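hey m, so remember when u said the tokens were messed up on ur end? i reran from scratch. heres the input so u can diff it against urs
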Amino acid sequence: MTEMTDKEILEQFRTESSRHYAFNLLIRKYQQRIYYHIRRMILDHDDAHDVTQETFIKVWKGLDNFREDSQLYTWLYRIATNESLTFLRQKKRRFTIPWSEVEHEMSDSLSGDSHFNANALELKLQKALLTLPPKQRLVFNLRYYDNMKYEDMSKVLGVTEGALKASYHHAVKKVEKYLTGS
């Protein structure tokens, strides 16, 4: 069986009798990509899993209103991004501690996370990314891990391509500085 296109999935979703089937296809097609996008922002497996579920709940509720002005995957990424940033803000507020301490806690949880099975270099990269402001880390993740074009990132984040390029450049410099210890 060949994978359905986004357009075909949306057509199926708009038909009442195949709505649930179409949504399951959408989840199968995008769940892993969305989970890892969220996971790179939130780091903790259980929290990322919860935010992924919240993302797809929002998608279910909003899919009827999707106007197809953008690609489906950029719309999904935008919802996942907003859910991730909201989660991080709530986490910071809930503990009423400085962001640097939240970053430190997230960094510590990475080392002990059985779902995070990376080599030492990847662990060091993740710790370097934690030193970035959340939105700069998001831009880095979208470009480096998801290989997303600046044009698509602009649609996901609502930021100009020039600002995204500058943000990515600054993020790369900070990560390089952290990794080389200079």
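this time it looks ok to me. Residues 19-42 form the longest helix (24 residues). if urs says something different then somethings off w ur setup not the seq
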